[in-house]
Amino acid sequence: MPQPVVEAHGVRLRPFRVDDTADVVDGCADPLSQRFVSTMPAPYTEADARWWIDAGAPAVWTGGGAAYAVADPATDRLLGAVGLNNPVPAHARAEIGYWVRPASRGRGVATAATRALSEHAFATGTARLELFTEAENGQSQRVALAAGFGYEGLRRSAGASRSGGRHDLLAWVRLADDPPGPAVRQLPDLPGGVLTDQVVALRRLAPDDAELMYRLHSRPEVVANQAPPVPPERAAIERRCRLAESGWLTGDIARLLITEVASGEPVGSCGLSFTDAASGEAAVGYALLPAWRGRGYATRAVRLLAGWAFGPPGVARLIAGTVPDNTASHRVLERVGFQPEALQRGRLPGLAGARQDDLTFALLPPDLR
């Protein structure tokens, strides 16, 4: 079957050629590609690239998929690749995937190629495209969103690793009749990547924050106000920090580090997650390191987070659950404008099968101080 050339969104999709060999090796042998595309041979050699160009890519076309080189329209040099795999003609469904050479990253190449191939696939009869990413591959998730693919859910053990194990994948989907443009996000990025009142600043949690977060959330007084009150494992905190961007992009939770602006020192952490997205209700939580308590920093952080939540994310109501005897936290919430609403007896899990009460505070936009 002839392989049509597609030119759209500033990229050219064309068949692979022998003179692409060196660039294919450059893209596929790169550590990032090797980490997140487990189907690639490791190590990736010139022989692997030649096999792909001569046999692998043609076989994808023969099987009903597509295997395109993504090229610069001005020079026709290879920038990356994009393709359709695992087609299900009876359901008009296929999977889309991509990789980009290191020197071509950060220029929107993957987004442009994904949009171009998606539009071509929809124009030729495909109804549903699925895109799968690993949970730690935040950059690929941003490509999916920018190309109009909305988060659909977790596919348990959907990915196979080179070691023979299995791992979960995140599913992103675009339908032929979805509106054009990027997918709508439940938790948009912070403006400029930070919220600040010039005294404290909030930014997204990052992998390098793991040691600090473990130290904070292992403190006895912090553990006592969690449900259940069990100290976290270091590996769990490390994974939480690695997945902070993904949690934000999927709309699961916004995890933030609180820092003091003057010194740049970390103060604590806070977070926001939707409890009922349909009704616009979300919950906030926070914790501070001992040296920074009593300075009003928790109040400032919660006020900043609430102000942002009532803006771009469209939150209509914020709640905060607290242990009834955590009076310091109650004072923080009340200074921001939260009001106590309900004591829910035995709502939270405790230790050894016991239950804890939950004192819930709520904040509406007009209440924000």
Task: Please provide a written account of the structure.
Keywords: Acyltransferase, Transferase. This is GNAT family N-acetyltransferase. It comes from Micromonospora vulcania. One of its GO terms (molecular function) is acyltransferase activity. Its EC number is 2.3.-.-. The protein folds into 2 domains: 170 residues, Aminopeptidase (3-Layer(aba) Sandwich), CATH 3.40.630; 177 residues, Aminopeptidase (3-Layer(aba) Sandwich), CATH 3.40.630. It starts with 5 loop residues before the first strand and ends in a 6-residue tail after the last strand. Helix content is 29%, strand content 32%. Strand 5, helix 4 and strand 6 form a beta-alpha-beta unit. The chain has 369 residues and is of the alpha+beta class. Helix 6 crosses helix 8 and helix 10 crosses helix 11. The protein contains 11 helices and 16 strands. The longest helix has 17 residues. The strands form 2 sheets. Strands 1-2-3-4-5-6-8-7 form an 8-stranded mixed sheet, sandwiched between helices. It has an 8-stranded mixed sheet with strand order 9-10-11-12-13-14-16-15, with helices on both faces.
Short description:
By secondary structure, the chain is an alpha+beta fold. It folds into 2 domains: 170 residues, Gcn5-related N-acetyltransferase (GNAT) (Aminopeptidase); 177 residues, 3-Layer(aba) Sandwich (Aminopeptidase), CATH 3.40.630.30. It has an 8-stranded mixed β-sheet with strand order 1-2-3-4-5-6-8-7, with helices on both faces.
Element layout with pairings:
Blueprint: E1 6-8, E2 11-14, H1 21-28, H2 31-36, H3 46-62, E3 66-71, E4 78-88, E5 93-100, H4 109-123, E6 128-133, H5 138-146, E7 150-160, E8 166-175, E9 195-196, E10 200-204, H6 210-217, H7 220-224, H8 234-242, H9 244-250, E11 254-260, E12 266-276, E13 281-288, H10 297-309, E14 317-322, H11 327-336, E15 339-349, E16 355-363
Parallel strand pairs: 5-6, 13-14
Antiparallel strand pairs: 1-2, 2-3, 3-4, 4-5, 6-8, 7-8, 9-10, 10-11, 11-12, 12-13, 14-16, 15-16
Helix pairs in contact: 1-3, 6-8, 10-11
